[in-house]
Amino acid sequence: MSDRQTPRWAFGRHLRSRRGWRQAAADVREEMRLHVELRTRELESGGLSKDEAHRRAWREVGDPARVTNATTRLAAATDRRDSIRQWLDEIVQDVRYALRSARRSPGFAASVRALGAALDASLPLYNVTTLDGLLADNLRYDRVGAMVSAAFALAGVFLAALGLYGVLSFAVNADRREIGVRLALGASRAHVARLVALRAGRLTVIGLLLGAVGSWIAGRAIAAVVEGAVPDAGIAVAAAATLLVAAVVAMLAPLARAVRIDPLEALRAE
Amino acid sequence: MARASHELLHGTLETLILKALEDQPRHGYGIVRQIEEATGGVVAVEDGSLYPALYRLETKGLIRGDFGVSDAGRRARFYKVTPRGARALAAQTKTWEQFADGVSRLLLGRRP
Fold it and tell me: Cβ contacts of residue B90 below 8 Å, gap of 6+?
Protein backbone atom coordinates (compact mmCIF):
# COMPACT_ATOMS: atom_id res chain seq x y z
CA MET A 1 0.00 0.00 0.00
CA SER A 2 2.87 2.38 0.67
CA ASP A 3 6.03 3.01 -1.28
CA ARG A 4 8.03 1.66 1.61
CA GLN A 5 7.78 -1.93 0.44
CA THR A 6 7.50 -3.43 3.90
CA PRO A 7 7.18 -7.21 3.68
CA ARG A 8 3.76 -8.32 4.81
CA TRP A 9 3.19 -11.38 6.93
CA ALA A 10 6.91 -11.73 7.45
CA PHE A 11 7.91 -14.01 10.27
CA GLY A 12 8.97 -12.14 13.41
CA ARG A 13 7.51 -8.92 12.08
CA HIS A 14 5.95 -8.24 15.44
CA LEU A 15 9.29 -7.84 17.20
CA ARG A 16 11.01 -6.18 14.32
CA SER A 17 8.38 -3.50 14.09
CA ARG A 18 8.69 -2.78 17.81
CA ARG A 19 12.37 -2.11 17.28
CA GLY A 20 11.25 -0.12 14.26
CA TRP A 21 9.21 2.24 16.41
CA ARG A 22 12.13 2.97 18.67
CA GLN A 23 14.29 3.69 15.66
CA ALA A 24 11.55 5.89 14.24
CA ALA A 25 11.32 7.84 17.49
CA ALA A 26 15.11 8.33 17.55
CA ASP A 27 15.03 9.50 13.94
CA VAL A 28 12.32 12.05 14.67
CA ARG A 29 14.24 13.40 17.65
CA GLU A 30 17.36 13.78 15.56
CA GLU A 31 15.37 15.45 12.82
CA MET A 32 13.81 17.90 15.29
CA ARG A 33 17.14 18.72 16.89
CA LEU A 34 18.56 19.72 13.54
CA HIS A 35 15.46 21.78 12.81
CA VAL A 36 15.72 23.60 16.15
CA GLU A 37 19.41 24.25 15.61
CA LEU A 38 18.83 25.84 12.22
CA ARG A 39 15.82 27.82 13.43
CA THR A 40 17.70 29.04 16.51
CA ARG A 41 20.49 30.36 14.31
CA GLU A 42 17.94 32.17 12.15
CA LEU A 43 16.15 33.72 15.13
CA GLU A 44 19.50 34.75 16.62
CA SER A 45 20.47 36.57 13.48
CA GLY A 46 17.06 38.25 13.75
CA GLY A 47 18.21 39.80 17.02
CA LEU A 48 17.01 37.39 19.68
CA SER A 49 19.27 36.24 22.49
CA LYS A 50 20.60 32.70 22.18
CA ASP A 51 18.45 31.43 25.04
CA GLU A 52 15.33 33.09 23.82
CA ALA A 53 15.91 31.90 20.27
CA HIS A 54 16.44 28.36 21.46
CA ARG A 55 13.27 28.38 23.57
CA ARG A 56 11.19 29.84 20.82
CA ALA A 57 12.53 27.36 18.25
CA TRP A 58 11.54 24.44 20.45
CA ARG A 59 8.12 25.95 20.99
CA GLU A 60 7.58 26.16 17.27
CA VAL A 61 8.83 22.68 16.46
CA GLY A 62 6.89 21.15 19.30
CA ASP A 63 7.41 18.95 22.30
CA PRO A 64 9.60 16.08 21.06
CA ALA A 65 7.96 13.57 23.38
CA ARG A 66 4.52 14.49 22.08
CA VAL A 67 5.59 14.54 18.48
CA THR A 68 7.46 11.24 18.65
CA ASN A 69 4.54 9.70 20.45
CA ALA A 70 2.13 10.93 17.83
CA THR A 71 4.37 9.91 14.96
CA THR A 72 5.38 6.52 16.28
CA ARG A 73 1.78 5.82 17.15
CA LEU A 74 1.00 6.53 13.55
CA ALA A 75 3.78 4.21 12.47
CA ALA A 76 2.28 1.63 14.80
CA ALA A 77 -1.09 2.17 13.18
CA THR A 78 0.44 1.46 9.80
CA ASP A 79 2.11 -1.68 11.05
CA ARG A 80 -1.21 -2.73 12.53
CA ARG A 81 -2.68 -2.73 9.08
CA ASP A 82 0.16 -4.96 7.96
CA SER A 83 0.05 -7.52 10.69
CA ILE A 84 -3.11 -9.15 11.93
CA ARG A 85 -1.32 -10.69 14.87
CA GLN A 86 -0.17 -7.38 16.18
CA TRP A 87 -3.59 -6.02 15.54
CA LEU A 88 -5.17 -8.72 17.67
CA ASP A 89 -2.58 -8.13 20.38
CA GLU A 90 -3.42 -4.49 20.53
CA ILE A 91 -7.14 -5.12 20.56
CA VAL A 92 -6.78 -7.48 23.48
CA GLN A 93 -4.58 -4.94 25.20
CA ASP A 94 -6.97 -2.09 24.53
CA VAL A 95 -10.00 -4.05 25.67
CA ARG A 96 -8.23 -5.12 28.81
CA TYR A 97 -7.14 -1.57 29.40
CA ALA A 98 -10.61 -0.23 28.78
CA LEU A 99 -12.16 -2.75 31.14
CA ARG A 100 -9.57 -1.92 33.76
CA SER A 101 -10.15 1.82 33.47
CA ALA A 102 -13.89 1.39 33.37
CA ARG A 103 -13.81 -0.73 36.48
CA ARG A 104 -11.67 1.80 38.27
CA SER A 105 -13.73 4.84 37.39
CA PRO A 106 -16.45 4.48 34.79
CA GLY A 107 -16.79 7.39 32.44
CA PHE A 108 -13.50 8.91 33.48
CA ALA A 109 -11.67 8.29 30.21
CA ALA A 110 -14.73 9.33 28.22
CA SER A 111 -15.04 12.64 30.03
CA VAL A 112 -11.32 13.34 29.71
CA ARG A 113 -11.55 12.60 26.00
CA ALA A 114 -14.53 14.90 25.64
CA LEU A 115 -12.64 17.63 27.46
CA GLY A 116 -9.58 17.08 25.26
CA ALA A 117 -11.67 17.15 22.10
CA ALA A 118 -13.25 20.42 23.21
CA LEU A 119 -9.82 21.99 23.70
CA ASP A 120 -8.26 20.73 20.50
CA ALA A 121 -9.79 18.02 18.36
CA SER A 122 -6.45 17.17 16.77
CA LEU A 123 -4.76 16.56 20.11
CA PRO A 124 -3.91 12.86 20.39
CA LEU A 125 -5.06 11.45 23.73
CA TYR A 126 -4.07 8.01 24.83
CA ASN A 127 -3.39 6.08 28.00
CA VAL A 128 -6.06 8.03 29.85
CA THR A 129 -5.97 6.82 33.41
CA THR A 130 -6.56 7.97 36.96
CA LEU A 131 -3.81 8.76 39.40
CA ASP A 132 -4.81 5.66 41.33
CA GLY A 133 -4.52 3.60 38.18
CA LEU A 134 -1.09 5.05 37.48
CA LEU A 135 0.02 4.22 41.01
CA ALA A 136 -1.34 0.69 40.74
CA ASP A 137 0.47 0.19 37.43
CA ASN A 138 3.74 1.45 38.86
CA LEU A 139 3.46 -0.69 41.97
CA ARG A 140 2.55 -3.83 40.04
CA TYR A 141 6.05 -5.33 40.11
CA ASP A 142 6.60 -4.38 43.74
CA ARG A 143 3.34 -6.08 44.57
CA VAL A 144 4.38 -9.26 42.76
CA GLY A 145 7.62 -9.18 44.75
CA ALA A 146 5.69 -8.79 48.00
CA MET A 147 3.44 -11.71 47.06
CA VAL A 148 6.46 -13.90 46.35
CA SER A 149 7.94 -12.96 49.74
CA ALA A 150 4.64 -13.78 51.42
CA ALA A 151 4.55 -17.15 49.65
CA PHE A 152 8.06 -17.89 50.90
CA ALA A 153 7.06 -16.88 54.42
CA LEU A 154 4.08 -19.25 54.32
CA ALA A 155 6.31 -22.04 53.05
CA GLY A 156 8.70 -21.21 55.92
CA VAL A 157 5.95 -21.59 58.52
CA PHE A 158 4.92 -24.90 56.94
CA LEU A 159 8.51 -26.21 57.01
CA ALA A 160 8.90 -25.09 60.63
CA ALA A 161 5.76 -27.02 61.60
CA LEU A 162 7.07 -30.07 59.74
CA GLY A 163 10.42 -29.81 61.51
CA LEU A 164 8.74 -29.44 64.86
CA TYR A 165 6.76 -32.60 64.19
CA GLY A 166 9.94 -34.49 63.30
CA VAL A 167 11.84 -33.33 66.39
CA LEU A 168 8.99 -34.22 68.80
CA SER A 169 8.44 -37.63 67.20
CA PHE A 170 12.14 -38.32 67.52
CA ALA A 171 12.25 -37.16 71.14
CA VAL A 172 9.35 -39.37 72.16
CA ASN A 173 10.79 -42.39 70.33
CA ALA A 174 14.15 -41.83 71.99
CA ASP A 175 12.39 -42.05 75.37
CA ARG A 176 10.83 -45.44 74.57
CA ARG A 177 13.16 -47.29 76.88
CA GLU A 178 12.67 -44.96 79.82
CA ILE A 179 8.93 -45.11 79.34
CA GLY A 180 9.11 -48.92 79.20
CA VAL A 181 11.07 -48.98 82.46
CA ARG A 182 8.63 -46.66 84.19
CA LEU A 183 5.68 -48.74 82.99
CA ALA A 184 7.40 -51.92 84.14
CA LEU A 185 7.95 -50.36 87.55
CA GLY A 186 4.25 -49.63 87.80
CA ALA A 187 3.80 -46.14 86.37
CA SER A 188 0.30 -45.42 85.13
CA ARG A 189 -0.53 -44.62 81.51
CA ALA A 190 -1.64 -41.11 82.61
CA HIS A 191 1.76 -40.56 84.15
CA VAL A 192 3.44 -41.56 80.89
CA ALA A 193 1.18 -39.24 78.93
CA ARG A 194 1.96 -36.33 81.28
CA LEU A 195 5.67 -37.06 81.00
CA VAL A 196 5.65 -37.01 77.21
CA ALA A 197 3.42 -33.90 77.07
CA LEU A 198 5.63 -32.01 79.49
CA ARG A 199 8.81 -32.78 77.58
CA ALA A 200 7.26 -31.83 74.26
CA GLY A 201 5.70 -28.74 75.82
CA ARG A 202 9.02 -27.63 77.27
CA LEU A 203 10.72 -27.98 73.89
CA THR A 204 7.89 -26.09 72.22
CA VAL A 205 7.92 -23.21 74.73
CA ILE A 206 11.69 -22.83 74.42
CA GLY A 207 11.34 -22.82 70.64
CA LEU A 208 8.56 -20.25 70.69
CA LEU A 209 10.53 -17.93 72.97
CA LEU A 210 13.60 -18.18 70.76
CA GLY A 211 11.42 -17.66 67.69
CA ALA A 212 9.73 -14.60 69.22
CA VAL A 213 13.08 -12.95 69.98
CA GLY A 214 14.40 -13.91 66.55
CA SER A 215 11.40 -12.58 64.68
CA TRP A 216 11.51 -9.34 66.69
CA ILE A 217 15.15 -8.81 65.72
CA ALA A 218 14.50 -9.80 62.08
CA GLY A 219 11.47 -7.51 62.00
CA ARG A 220 13.55 -4.57 63.19
CA ALA A 221 16.21 -5.36 60.59
CA ILE A 222 13.62 -5.46 57.78
CA ALA A 223 11.92 -2.28 59.02
CA ALA A 224 15.29 -0.50 58.87
CA VAL A 225 15.58 -1.37 55.16
CA VAL A 226 11.99 -1.47 53.89
CA GLU A 227 9.99 1.65 54.44
CA GLY A 228 6.61 1.07 56.07
CA ALA A 229 7.38 -2.50 57.17
CA VAL A 230 6.39 -2.24 60.83
CA PRO A 231 6.84 -5.39 62.93
CA ASP A 232 3.30 -6.67 63.29
CA ALA A 233 2.42 -8.27 66.62
CA GLY A 234 -0.73 -9.80 65.15
CA ILE A 235 1.21 -11.66 62.48
CA ALA A 236 3.80 -12.83 65.04
CA VAL A 237 1.02 -14.16 67.30
CA ALA A 238 -0.63 -15.89 64.34
CA ALA A 239 2.64 -17.54 63.34
CA ALA A 240 3.27 -18.64 66.93
CA ALA A 241 -0.28 -20.05 67.19
CA THR A 242 0.21 -21.94 63.92
CA LEU A 243 3.43 -23.46 65.23
CA LEU A 244 1.75 -24.27 68.55
CA VAL A 245 -1.01 -26.15 66.75
CA ALA A 246 1.62 -27.93 64.68
CA ALA A 247 3.43 -28.86 67.89
CA VAL A 248 0.25 -30.26 69.46
CA VAL A 249 -0.53 -32.27 66.35
CA ALA A 250 3.08 -33.45 66.17
CA MET A 251 2.87 -34.49 69.81
CA LEU A 252 -0.36 -36.46 69.54
CA ALA A 253 0.88 -39.34 67.40
CA PRO A 254 4.07 -40.06 69.46
CA LEU A 255 2.02 -39.57 72.64
CA ALA A 256 -0.50 -42.18 71.54
CA ARG A 257 2.35 -44.49 70.64
CA ALA A 258 4.09 -43.88 73.98
CA VAL A 259 0.96 -44.68 75.93
CA ARG A 260 0.54 -47.94 74.06
CA ILE A 261 4.13 -49.06 74.63
CA ASP A 262 4.34 -52.63 75.87
CA PRO A 263 6.95 -52.55 78.71
CA LEU A 264 8.13 -56.06 77.91
CA GLU A 265 8.67 -55.28 74.28
CA ALA A 266 10.39 -51.98 75.02
CA LEU A 267 12.84 -53.64 77.41
CA ARG A 268 13.41 -56.62 75.14
CA ALA A 269 14.37 -54.32 72.30
CA GLU A 270 17.44 -53.28 74.28
CA MET B 1 3.78 40.02 10.51
CA ALA B 2 0.28 38.81 9.80
CA ARG B 3 0.13 35.07 10.27
CA ALA B 4 -2.61 32.63 9.42
CA SER B 5 -4.21 31.08 12.45
CA HIS B 6 -3.53 27.54 13.43
CA GLU B 7 -7.06 26.39 12.70
CA LEU B 8 -6.94 27.62 9.14
CA LEU B 9 -3.62 25.93 8.65
CA HIS B 10 -4.66 22.62 10.05
CA GLY B 11 -6.62 21.27 7.12
CA THR B 12 -4.31 22.67 4.50
CA LEU B 13 -0.93 21.97 6.04
CA GLU B 14 -0.55 18.63 4.29
CA THR B 15 -1.30 20.22 0.94
CA LEU B 16 1.17 23.02 1.64
CA ILE B 17 3.87 20.49 2.49
CA LEU B 18 3.26 18.62 -0.76
CA LYS B 19 3.51 21.89 -2.63
CA ALA B 20 6.73 22.85 -0.84
CA LEU B 21 8.28 19.55 -1.89
CA GLU B 22 7.10 19.76 -5.48
CA ASP B 23 10.27 21.20 -6.96
CA GLN B 24 12.92 19.47 -4.85
CA PRO B 25 13.39 17.27 -1.75
CA ARG B 26 13.74 19.19 1.50
CA HIS B 27 14.21 18.46 5.17
CA GLY B 28 11.75 19.61 7.84
CA TYR B 29 13.27 23.02 8.39
CA GLY B 30 13.57 23.54 4.65
CA ILE B 31 9.86 22.82 4.26
CA VAL B 32 8.97 25.46 6.87
CA ARG B 33 11.22 28.01 5.19
CA GLN B 34 9.78 27.24 1.78
CA ILE B 35 6.18 27.60 3.01
CA GLU B 36 6.93 30.88 4.79
CA GLU B 37 8.82 32.31 1.83
CA ALA B 38 6.33 31.20 -0.78
CA THR B 39 3.40 32.68 1.19
CA GLY B 40 5.28 35.89 1.93
CA GLY B 41 5.37 35.04 5.64
CA VAL B 42 1.59 34.92 5.90
CA VAL B 43 1.50 31.24 6.73
CA ALA B 44 3.67 29.98 9.58
CA VAL B 45 4.03 26.34 10.56
CA GLU B 46 4.19 26.23 14.33
CA ASP B 47 2.99 24.45 17.43
CA GLY B 48 4.62 21.16 16.60
CA SER B 49 2.26 20.43 13.75
CA LEU B 50 4.92 19.84 11.09
CA TYR B 51 6.37 16.49 12.09
CA PRO B 52 3.09 14.75 12.82
CA ALA B 53 1.88 15.99 9.43
CA LEU B 54 5.01 14.65 7.73
CA TYR B 55 4.37 11.28 9.28
CA ARG B 56 0.74 11.30 8.24
CA LEU B 57 1.81 12.02 4.69
CA GLU B 58 4.45 9.33 4.74
CA THR B 59 2.00 6.84 6.18
CA LYS B 60 -0.41 7.59 3.37
CA GLY B 61 2.43 7.08 0.92
CA LEU B 62 2.23 10.62 -0.43
CA ILE B 63 5.79 11.53 0.52
CA ARG B 64 8.85 9.54 1.32
CA GLY B 65 11.62 10.53 3.75
CA ASP B 66 15.16 9.21 3.52
CA PHE B 67 18.17 10.19 5.56
CA GLY B 68 20.84 11.95 3.60
CA VAL B 69 23.52 14.57 4.10
CA SER B 70 22.58 18.25 4.01
CA ASP B 71 24.57 21.03 2.31
CA ALA B 72 26.16 21.80 5.67
CA GLY B 73 27.27 18.18 5.94
CA ARG B 74 24.66 17.25 8.55
CA ARG B 75 22.64 14.05 8.61
CA ALA B 76 19.06 15.02 7.83
CA ARG B 77 15.90 13.36 6.59
CA PHE B 78 14.93 14.64 3.18
CA TYR B 79 11.37 14.25 2.02
CA LYS B 80 10.28 13.95 -1.58
CA VAL B 81 6.89 13.66 -3.20
CA THR B 82 5.89 10.22 -4.45
CA PRO B 83 3.91 9.81 -7.68
CA ARG B 84 0.83 9.28 -5.56
CA GLY B 85 1.65 12.45 -3.65
CA ALA B 86 1.91 14.38 -6.91
CA ARG B 87 -1.55 13.16 -7.94
CA ALA B 88 -2.95 14.04 -4.51
CA LEU B 89 -1.43 17.52 -4.74
CA ALA B 90 -3.04 18.08 -8.13
CA ALA B 91 -6.44 16.95 -6.80
CA GLN B 92 -6.17 19.03 -3.64
CA THR B 93 -5.07 22.08 -5.57
CA LYS B 94 -8.14 21.78 -7.72
CA THR B 95 -10.39 21.40 -4.69
CA TRP B 96 -8.79 24.41 -3.05
CA GLU B 97 -9.18 26.47 -6.18
CA GLN B 98 -12.91 25.78 -6.28
CA PHE B 99 -13.28 26.41 -2.57
CA ALA B 100 -11.29 29.64 -2.56
CA ASP B 101 -13.13 30.81 -5.65
CA GLY B 102 -16.48 30.17 -3.97
CA VAL B 103 -15.50 31.88 -0.73
CA SER B 104 -14.06 34.86 -2.59
CA ARG B 105 -17.24 35.23 -4.55
CA LEU B 106 -19.26 35.20 -1.36
CA LEU B 107 -17.06 37.44 0.76
CA LEU B 108 -15.84 39.89 -1.84
CA GLY B 109 -18.85 39.86 -4.14
CA ARG B 110 -16.74 38.93 -7.14
CA ARG B 111 -18.44 37.75 -10.27
CA PRO B 112 -16.89 34.90 -12.23
Answer: none
